[in-house]
Structures are given as C-alpha cells and as structure tokens.
Write the structure tokens for this entry.
Amino acid sequence: MQMPISVPNRMKDPLTRLPGYVLRRASAATVAELNQRLQSLDLRHAEAACLLLIDASPGLTQSEIGRTLDIQRSNMAPFALRLESRGLIERRKVDGRSQGLILTPIGRSVLAKARKVVEAYELSLIRRVPEELRPAVLPILMALWNRQSD
Amino acid sequence: MQMPISVPNRMKDPLTRLPGYVLRRASAATVAELNQRLQSLDLRHAEAACLLLIDASPGLTQSEIGRTLDIQRSNMAPFALRLESRGLIERRKVDGRSQGLILTPIGRSVLAKARKVVEAYELSLIRRVPEELRPAVLPILMALWNRQSD
DNA sequence: TATTGTTATACTCTATAACTATA
DNA sequence: TATAGTTATAGAGTATAACAATA
C-alpha cells in the first residue's frame, strides 16, 4: 500500500462507482492497515485469524483451518510450520495422519495481544461508517461474499 | 480461490462477525470471480481497470494511473509494457520524461468486451444484496475505504 | 478410494532501492 | 529538488501437481 495522496485527485475516475472495485480497494487498504498494526507482534492478518480460530476450536487440523480461511492445504504447511517454530502452536496427533493444533501458553499470550489489536481495528473500521448505516455493514459484506448472514 | 464447500461448516467461526475479515473474504472471492470472467479476454481485473481509466481520460501517464489504482510506479512499468506489447495501448510523448497512454483500436475493441464483462459482474454483485440495502452498498464501502462518497 | 500432510514449483502481486533523464 | 520511467530484487500470496502414509 502506498500512503494516501493528500492532493485531491481531479482525474475522471469511472471506477469508484463500481461496488466491486471499491470493495477491492477497501479490502486492500484495510489489510495493509491491519498488517501494519500487527507488525509489532510479528503477525500477519492471516496468522492472527488462524490463532483466533484455534483458540475458538482447539484441536482443529491444518486442513480444517485451510478450508475455513480458504488457504490451500499445500500452503497451510509452511504457514503452520512458522507458527509452530515460533512456539505459538503445538501439534497433537489425532490419528495417523491428522494433527490437531492447539495454542501454547506463548500462543495464548500473543493471541491476547493480537485480539486487542484486531478488535480495536474492527471498531475503528465500523466507526468510519455513518451510524445509521452500521447495521447494514455485515449483511451487505456477507451478501457480497455470497453467504447468508445466518 | 478454492471452490466453495457445499457441506455446512459446523465449526465455530468467530471471524465472520468481524467486518474487516468479511470484507477481505468478500474481496478475495469477487476478485477471483472477476478474473475468471475476464480470462477469455486474457485480462486481469487490474488491466481492465487500467483500460477503463485510459478510456475515460486519454493521455494519462503511467504514474497517474499508478496513483489512481494504488500501483507502485515501478510495478506499472511491466504492467504497461504488457498492455503495449499486446497492442492495446500506445505511448505518446508528453514531454521528455512523461508518456501519455491512449487506447489503440484493438484496445478499444478489447475494452468494449471487458466493459460488458465488468458491468455484468458488477450487476450480479449488487443483486446479491437485498434490495432495501443496495443504496447503502457504495456509501459503506467508500467509508470503509476511508473516502468521502463525494 | 478419499484424506492429511508434505514438497516442489510457478505465477501474481506488492514493496523498496537505485539509476537516468528530464522538469 | 522533484518527477517519470525503468531495472533489479525480495517477499507475500496463491495455484497445481504429485507423493507417502493413513482412513
């Protein structure tokens, strides 16, 4: 992400009327912002998401996490390895091929800090939206994601 | 993007309540979908955006486009080169260092098809959202992007 | 047969630094 | 001094294929 340009852009921009385009730009901007806020914990946003998932469901396997986060099984291997070698998670054999992932004490401590960062960031995001539109935020994003809100 | 899992996911998922997370997932999913629809034109979503911009403001320079799309100047070079070597755009010297970009006849023809794909996709996106929420879509996305709607 | 974890590999996207030519 | 275009390079992120071990 480049830092925002402060001079007004006088260019015709036919793109900012396209929800899909603005969705991409909003996502790219917020990912960059969240990654920056997580930098001091040496975490990427997807790693924080992974820790949050494991904390909510200890014993999840790599494959299950990958399916939830839409990360390929093959890409989960180095991903989980990094969390493991940093001592944030442990693997526990479930059967001969699956290994449940759980947080270590260090992992729980890092997650506690990450959770604060994430929650503060989510709050700052929602606060960008005019109050009367806030109830529509999740339903709209879930719909664009093509998921039922529930 | 993996194809969606059809079996319901019974896993606790604390993430889908987080607007920022859902924003990222919605964006990733829609980028993948749009890229797939543009595949037959051998265009990526950012290339289509670039053509749309040049068409709206012929003579834009690489740097200006990069600032508009948040693509680094250094990354714009191979990007523009590809469009040029495919005969979609031409460079016209503005002064000793800047080159304005314009669409070639081929570029206009490809853009016409790309525009249809993009507009159809944008329409399909907005249709995912319940009708009464649609007016809030752009204001919310612009707010999350941290831009004024106007 | 299908699934888990893994390795290898390739491609895209993004980020930084440095260079030149020009304004 | 600042800007435009370029090159080189490194790091993420993502995609596919293939393999062994296990269910």
The radius of gyration of chain B is 18 Å. Residues 60 and 100 of chain B are 5 Å apart (CA to CA).
